[in-house]
Specification:
The complex is a heterodimer of chains A (125) and B (271).
Chain A lengths: L3 E6 L3 H11 L5 E6 L2 H10 L4 E4 L8 H10 L8 E5 L4 H10 L3 E4 L4 H12 L3
Parallel strand pairs in A: 1-2, 1-3, 3-4, 4-5
Chain B lengths: L1 H50 L1 H63 L5 H16 L1 E10 L4 E8 L9 E2 L3 H9 L3 E2 L13 E7 L2 E11 L8 H42 L1
Antiparallel strand pairs in B: 1-2, 1-6, 2-3, 4-5, 5-6
Helix pairs in contact in B: 1-2, 2-3, 2-5, 3-5
Chain lengths: 125, 271
């Protein structure tokens, strides 16, 4: 069975660890972490990923900028992106989805919800 | 001559074919006859039972007993089905509870792990801020540290509002000072009734009985409507572990300073 590669783009080490903890419960996944949008973009263009979890408020490059750049790349257009953010306003959600995010989850996160969304986007049972 | 013989053969085969079909038809008729004979015998038996009072009663009794037994079996099966459904529901509920517990433990583990991952005070404060934002879901809050000489609590880190929004207070005074003095997390009963600028939660940070500081939360993120059991677990964890982490970082920083002073002094003496 093919292993799925997931990238977590998040500036908070606490959140990165928590998300990695939750996602490791999925079978056959490799998790890679990036600490800001620029780091995330570098990793996404260097390697193939099946899913990216992206925070919005980050230093160097924010999550929205990262999403718009990723969606501009032909090779990354089909990769699912899940936004995980503290921004709970409807306009923030609509903006992220309009830029090309597939799902929008707000903090504090529920590990079950993250797992459910990841399974659905990775199409694993 | 040979044509005549061939004609005779083909006629003979036609006749044989006709005989075969006739035989098959006869067998079919015999089978149908046998079926009808059995059907007739069954109907005659029922007519006999219907005409004979005693036989009819016996048959009726047998049928009623059979119905009763089947009804009993059905009731047993239904009871068993309900039992299995209840067990299934119970297992599902238990599974959800365990999943939730597992997730909560993961959050507590991560929070605890991060709090003790550094001895650098600014990093410790940053980690506390991250935990309060990301795991509790607070939008406006501050971390206070107690000056042991003056007994005044002053904000050392804040989020969502400037330090001016979090006035210093004395140990034992107000919601924050009171919580630190008695060591109990103070939580507003109704979050909506709290005046702006007033804390909805004050978490005391103490190492054993020694007061270190407090966390005062004024507002939660808009998508969060209240506190969950995990939040209360996190308050307890922060009350102990954040206090220990701040205490250890301050001790480390003091000992570093003393070490540098002594090292400098030794360097002067040995030069």
């Amino acid at each position: 069975m093919r292993r799925h590669r997931i990238l977590i783009v998040e500036d908070s080490p606490t959140m990165r660890q928590l998300l990695a903890f939750a996602l490791k419960r999925l079978k056959d996944v490799d998790i890679v972490e990036a600490q800001d949008g620029m780091d995330g973009l570098r990793k996404l263009t260097a390697d193939a990923f099946d899913l990216a979890l992206v925070d919005i408020n980050m230093p160097v490059m924010d999550g929205l900028k990262l999403i718009s750049l990723v969606r501009g790349e032909d090779s990354l257009k089909g990769m699912p992106i899940v936004v995980i953010t503290t921004e709970g306003a409807r306009e923030d959600r609509e903006r992220a989805l309009a830029l090309g995010a597939d799902e929008y989850l707000t903090k504090p996160i529920q590990a079950n919800k993250v797992l459910q969304v990841a399974k659905s986007l990775l199409k694993i049972g | 001559m040979s044509e005549k013989r061939e004609g005779l053969f083909s006629r003979a085969e036609e006749v044989i074919g006709l005989f075969r079909k006739g035989a098959e038809f006869t067998q079919e008729l015999l089978r149908e006859n046998e079926r009808l004979r059995r059907e007739l015998a069954r109907v005659e038996g029922q007519q006999l039972a219907a005409s004979d009072e005693h036989a009819w009663e016996k048959l009726r009794g047998e049928l009623l007993a059979r119905i009763e037994s089947l009804e009993g079996e059905r009731t047993d099966m239904l009871e068993r089905l309900h039992q299995v459904e209840d067990e299934n529901r119970h297992f599902t509920e238990r599974y959800i509870e365990i999943e939730e517990e597992n997730n909560n433990l993961a959050s507590l583990y991560v929070a605890s792990f991060q709090l003790h991952s550094t001895l650098h005070l600014p990093e410790v404060l940053q980690i506390i801020v991250e935990i309060v934002i990301n795991l509790i879901g607070a939008e406006v809050f501050a971390i206070y540290v107690l000056d042991e000489k003056t007994n005044v609590l002053s904000p050392v880190a804040s989020e969502g509002a400037g330090p001016g929004a979090f006035p210093a207070c004395r140990l034992g005074e107000g919601m924050v000072g009171g919580a630190l003095a008695n060591g109990e997390t103070a939580c507003a009963d109704e979050l909506e009734g709290v005046e702006p600028g007033q804390p909805i939660v004050a978490i005391p940070l103490r190492v054993q009985e020694r007061p270190i500081g407090a966390i005062a939360i004024q507002r939660l993120l808009q998508q969060k409507d209240g506190f969950t059991p995990l939040d209360h677990e996190l308050f307890t964890l922060l009350a102990g572990h954040a206090a220990t982490a701040i205490f250890a970082a301050r001790l480390y920083s003091q000992s570093e300073r003393k070490l540098n002073t002594i090292q400098g002094f030794l360097d002067l003496l040995t030069k």
